[in-house]
Amino acid sequence: MQQSFSIVIHGGAGAITQKNTSADLQQAYTQGLQQALNAAYAILANNGAAIQAVKTAVMALEDNVLFNAGRGAVFTKKGIHELDAAIMNGATLQAGAVAGVRNVRNPVELAEQIMLYSGHVFLSGQGAIDFAMKQGIALAHDDYFFSQYRYDQWIAIRDSEFYQLDHKADTLVGRDKKLGTVGAVACDMHGNIAAATSTGGMTNKKYGRIGDSPIIGCGTYANNQTCAISCTGHGEIFIRAVAAYDVSCLMEYKGYTLQQAMDETVKHKLTNLSGDGGMIGVDAKGNTAWAFNTLGMYRAKRSSNGIYEIAMFT
Amino acid sequence: MQQSFSIVIHGGAGAITQKNTSADLQQAYTQGLQQALNAAYAILANNGAAIQAVKTAVMALEDNVLFNAGRGAVFTKKGIHELDAAIMNGATLQAGAVAGVRNVRNPVELAEQIMLYSGHVFLSGQGAIDFAMKQGIALAHDDYFFSQYRYDQWIAIRDSEFYQLDHKADTLVGRDKKLGTVGAVACDMHGNIAAATSTGGMTNKKYGRIGDSPIIGCGTYANNQTCAISCTGHGEIFIRAVAAYDVSCLMEYKGYTLQQAMDETVKHKLTNLSGDGGMIGVDAKGNTAWAFNTLGMYRAKRSSNGIYEIAMFT
Which candidate, A272, A122, A144, A108, places its Cα nearest to that of B211? Predict the structure, then answer.
């Protein structure tokens, strides 16, 4: 019997409801998720590696201005874009992560280069940009990251001490309480799994704030023995809960299934800490799962055993 | 019966051997450890909180030029000092961490301010320095962080592509293969536990490299239900192994004792990944433990039930 393969992606969680999402927007999100999902699925169907599939999916979402990552990243307090991303290969436990970079078109691509060529796991700030330039990663001018919608979000709160998780504002896209991040997890034909996550963080963030997305074990984790996980939500709480690795440990040490473990971490541990958000996961048999404690999560999955689902509401 | 209280500290692990450590240096290290240990113990004996005890111990080690943290931090590729630290309160799961800050006299103090007052968990770079200034944290001129020994370490390799884990060089202090970081874990009279870690990272590090020390779950973790852990070693591997939280999960999900869990993580998981280093731990009953897979680790522990030990070799 051939190993089944699968891909799951997310584009953020939060108060995503039918009432607050116009038909046009529903269609735009659906299209964006579908495009990323199918690009990654094609790689898996063509005997490609899980690590390649998650990178491809995340790059597609980074390039889509609808999602808070790459091109669609929110503005910081200083009116710039500081991007975070991570990637992990479950076959080797290799990992790469980057925090607080500017002008990098696809932060997940930089995370992969860090994993493969830096001798390190986690680079940050100007140093990470230096490494990106050395590796010849595609850079982009500030204008590339400009969108009127993100700018308006920022203008509305920049003179305050407030910051907001993406999609938390009562504004054009999505209206209320959505926590912006994108991510992907995949299992390939060889039973290798991988995870990747990318984000622009919180609108009006300051002080070089780093959330959970680039933190291995918190926002991103992959291990062939257990699971590949990508999270989205209130990053501070996901860090304190070491959310992604908690799922892995529940599987490794308590024998939970992927879905049981994710439900335990999201619906009990994170909820008890008032940690809003969600996560997606795969295991090395190609099983897929998602869990969230918010009203919705942009999400999609597709697997070789016939699963094909795109959803955003509960 | 009164709850027993305890403190454990470390000043780095590596190829620390009697042969490579002069009598004078042994005495200097012993004194440095003793001073930090006793300052923290006095707080606990006076009904102080674990979080206060670990901060006090780490600040004492940061102020001691022998250890690679705070004042004794190594030089980066650019000839500066970039400091990382984290602190976590096991009673509340609150955490604070900072990466890549310059000119902050006691990075662990900044980590605590981040935990208490920033609304975030993890700040980095210039933004973290801005926050330090806002909070009135003590800053120090570059000269404060200068030591001839660290400078010579750096000069020897700055024009190469090499970087080194602290104490890895065949130089004055310690000679060979020591992995520099300082840390403390404590259990107070009320059964609350805490952990803190601080480091200058690797000599000649570049690209804004972040190791495991400031990563919650990797180099630092505390949870009253399980353990408080502070790690030292090859940070990249400790991140990939999510080392500190792995110990916690082995206790929570498999019922291991503190020492069993730490041995499993250090002697099996980390060793299998060629991850040199060690860790210290306490649980909420005041039990203490350390584990390392290197030739030595600067370490000390003291508890209200009579344990008092300062050691550096195997």
Answer: A122
Q: Which of B65, B48, B50, B53 is nearest to B11 (CA)?
A: B65
In the three-class reduction of DSSP (H, G, I as helix; E, B as strand; rest coil), residue A26 is classed as helix
How many whole angstroms separate alpha carbon A13 and alpha carbon A193?
23
Q: CB contact, 8 Å: A94 with chain B?
A: yes
CB within 8 Å: B207 and A123: yes
Strands A94-101 and A83-89: what pairing?
antiparallel
- Is B133 in CB contact (< 8 Å) with chain A? no
Nearest to B3 by CA among B282, B300, B291, B221: B282
Show the DSSP H helices in chain B as ranges: 23-45, 50-62, 107-117, 125-135, 148-157, 235-240, 243-254, 258-263, 271-272
Q: What is the mean pLDDT of residues B134-160?
A: 86
Q: What CATH number is given to the structural domain containing A127?
A: 3.60.20.30
Residues A156, A161: Cα–Cα separation, whole Å: 12
- The string of pLDDT tens digits covering residues B78-113 is 888 899 999 999 999 999 999 999 999 999 999 999
Tokens of A235: 């990053």
Rounded to the nearest 10 degrees, the angle between the axes of helix A50-63 and helix A23-45 is 150
Question: What is the per-residue DSSP string for B3-68?
Answer: PP-EEEEEEEEES--TTTS-HHHHHHHHHHHHHHHHHHHHHHHTT--HHHHHHHHHHHHHTSTTSS
Both tokens of residue A43? 């790689």
Asked, for residue A1, whether it belongs to a domain, the answer is no
Q: Is residue A148 part of a domain?
A: yes
Q: Do B125 and A120 touch (CB under 8 A)?
A: no
If one counts the domains in chain B, the total is 1
- pLDDT tens digits for range B240-288: 999 999 999 999 999 999 999 999 999 999 999 999 999 999 999 999 9
> Hey, what amino acid is at A84?
D
Q: Which ranges in B63-189 belong to alpha helices (H)?
A: 107-117, 125-135, 148-157
User: Does the beta-carbon distance from B124 to A93 stay under 8 Å?
Assistant: no
Range of the structural domain that residue B293 is part of: 6-313
| A242 domain-assigned | yes
User: For residue B1, is it within any domain?
Assistant: no
